[in-house]
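[Meeting: bench + compute handoff]

Bench side (C.D.) handed over the final construct sequence. Compute side (W.E.) agreed to return the predicted structure before the next meeting so the bench team could plan truncations. Sequence as handed over:
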Amino acid sequence: MINKRLLVKNLLAHNDENSFYDKKRFISIGEKEGKAKFLKHVCALANSNPKNNSFIVVGVEDEDNKIVGVDFFDDSKIQNLVNAYLDSPPLIAYENIPFPHLPEGKVVGLVTIKSNGKVCALRKNIWKYYGGAVFFREGSISLPKAFDIELKDINSGKVATIEQHARNNIELTLDGVIDFMNNRHPDLTSSYKVFKEQFVVCWAGQEKKVKDQVYYSRVDIELINEQVKLFYSALDEVTITYDENSFTTLEYIQLGLGSQQKYYPLEEMTITFAENGNYNINSELLFQPPQYDKKTLHHIFNANSALLQKLQKGQTLTSHENEDLLHLPDTYLICYLNGFEEAKERMEEARPLLKRKSGKAYQILKESLRVIRKVRYN
């Protein structure tokens, strides 16, 4: 098994980006430009490495390789994005890699790209790139090339060496379990489970019992062998179940107008472990958004927009408006889920304002945007 934290460190030791490795401060696939640039790099790395893995490390300063981290990203449907826009798409995985010095909720993103051995090309136009375009890597740059160019394998040896140096061992695994349970989450209920005598899953959360069901909040779940954060949420309620072969989480979100709050199942994630040292993660979106009267939502949408305008103008908010600010992300989310497409644009406008004004409201906003991303990709 590969320890992904060691893999990131070994990749960063190659200070300059090259034809099998790229690094980014962040990626933004929620907008056309960011999505197009991401697809361009995926296409170029796949074509430049037809017989081995390529990587994009996210959350690193370009100039000095300083690891600054990004928000936890849990969208398992990133493969759907690649399949929708690329012909001969590669297999792609996005993993969240924890580093001890990063703040809670911050990780390094590791994108692993595995070519299918055929020329990968853009399937359709996106941003300023035309359908049919083919990209390759030249050093650290992804450039368009002729479609009939030959795929060459020049990096297999280098990548194999980097991956070999990142192999896990029993010491790293034990250190990881002890660090997770004793140092990183001393104030939470922590547990671990060994699967197939190989995989160690650790989880921590604030435990709450309702009737016979145990729920967790402030949840952190990691596959210690590979140093991969499987799940992280500062707000939502989560149930955890497992047997000898699998580990399952069911995530709930709280939504509603005013005092009419209710928990809704959002997504079920199941990790199935095999005897041969492999595992598979399957996610199923279960969310059925609540529906409300359009006239009521128009009133709420306009009230939110008026509050947002006051923030943009730097005006002082009343105590009642500060309370409304905490509900702004969730009510915009409800508006979006009921057909108000412009609500997402308002949420993006609110992002920098809430980050400066209210840390709690900003955190709720990030969670609300995560729900929108999941719903859109499904």
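W.E. noted at the follow-up: The first strand starts at residue 21 and ends at 24. C.D. will use this when planning the next construct.
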